[in-house]
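From the pipeline queue, job 12 of 40. The input is one protein chain; the requested action is below.

Action: predict structure.
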Amino acid sequence: MARVGLSRALARSGREWQELSRAAERAGLAGLWPADLAGSDCFVDAALALAATETAHVGIVVALPTRSAAQTAAAAAALAAYAPGRFLLGLGAGNDYLNPTVHNVPFAPPLARLRDFHAAVTALLRAPAGAPVSYQGPYQQVSALGFGLDEAALPVLLGAHGPAMTRLAAEIADGLAVQVITPLPTLAARAQLVRERRQRGSFPIILGMIASVDDDEATASRRARAEIAAALSLPRFRPRLAEAAGDALAARFSERCDAGDLSGAAALLPEEIVRAFAIVARPDTFAEAAGAIADADIVVPVPPDLFAGRFGARLGFTPADAAAAREMLVSTLLAAA
């Protein structure tokens, strides 16, 4: 049965993130999970959460190779030293928009770049403290001093969606962070790819998932549909609809999106597909719905406004929807624990 953690996406400021972190710790939620989100920094957010709590685990899911390997390792080592046994580092590839457009860092080839980034970061983390480290890879070159942190002191997870990246996580990482907008059938397939690695020892699967909660389940479903449609309208996510619903529906959905009819595209999504991508529940059914996700150890619910908020009226998703969805999800999470 999956446990539930708290996402940084639910807080609108660093101060609110600290307040929510303290409340989540009191409620017994399964960790605090910052990420490289627009407008915030995952290492700063991890530090804020660790400083605000005493026992809660804090895991970055995920940090991108838009920082140097030396920067990443040093920040992670500092957080692990500040809160021994409470910090986890996740590394991810990013995407073909964020890396080059926002950070002026190449994305392709993502698999090779993430393998190299992980190798450089862990070379520094795992080397004896103070020992000289020289790493020369195809994309990363590092010359610095080691930190002496093994996988027990600082686990390093890998973020993934596709099968190749998932296999890479099983090969080199200490756990798997599965991206938001991964349908449940795909999650099950990815869990099978790491099954052998999980049988050998600790290898947690952390799943980020859209969650829409309301006293009226039809309202929760409407908001989730808007969010899923908005996300799947983006070219990098469109193949994921084919994974969940087949090529025919994915093609019809893409045609509507390309014609500018986002509302019509959303209407094409059957309820079971919406629920393959999102937790849709009332407050009293949320814990059961989240816990039933058998292929994840920890589910990190995120509000249904990360994508839908960009399209607003085109999807019938208003600022009032966004505010209500966040408030309801936070209160439900803190009560459900």
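Job complete. Residues 319-336 form the longest helix (18 residues).
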